[in-house]
Amino acid sequence: MAVVSNLSVDQGADYSADIVVEDGNGNVANLTGYTVAAQMRKSYASSTFTNFGATVANAGQGLLTITLSNAVTNVLKAGRYLYDVEITKTSTSEKTRVVEGQVTINPGVTQI
Q1: Overall CATH class of domain 3-106
Q2: DSSP-derived 3-state class of residue 78
Q3: Are 39 and 53 in contact (CB under 8 A)?
Q4: Residue ranges of domains in the chain
Q5: Which of 51, 71, 86, 97 lies 20 to 30 Å from 110 when distance is taken between CA atoms?
Q6: Are 81 and 41 in contact, with CB atoms under 8 Å apart?
């Protein structure tokens, strides 16, 4: 079952978050041989989405990193979105959702 974690992102700013993946026993998961993907949408049924940059930053330490560039956050409308992060074991194509929650895009004033 995925961990629930809500995010707060400033419109027009770069965003980055590290995620440590644990196994069912609370131990750091070894993510060697895994890929990662993450998306956000306005609703579960929305056909439009925004991809996060998502990488396995340190497989041995179970560390993932998700990012949004300022160019991406600048065009997002302020408000609440839903997101999740999935890992895929490349040898079997098995997918696991590791984190999910809401993203709040906080409106910005500076427009340069």
Answers
A1: mainly beta
A2: coil
A3: no
A4: 3-106
A5: 51
A6: yes
Which residues does residue 58 pair with via DSSP β-bridges, in sequence order? 63
Phi, psi of 71 (to 5 degrees): -65, -35
Separation of alpha carbons 48 and 15, rounded Å: 20
C-alpha 95/C-alpha 26 separation (Å) is 19
pLDDT for 24:
86
> Could you tell me the end-to-end alpha-carbon distance of the chain, in angstroms, rounded to an integer?
41
Q: Is 56 exposed, middle or buried (0-12, 13-18, 19+ CB in 10 A)?
A: middle
Contact 31, 94 (CB under 8 A): no
Cα(3)–Cα(87) distance, rounded to whole angstroms?
A: 13
pLDDT in tens, 39-96: 999 999 999 999 999 999 999 999 999 999 999 999 999 999 999 999 999 999 999 9
Q: In which element (H, E) is residue 72 found?
A: helix 70-75
Q: What is the mean pLDDT of residues 10-22?
A: 97
Q: What is the pTM of this model?
A: 0.93
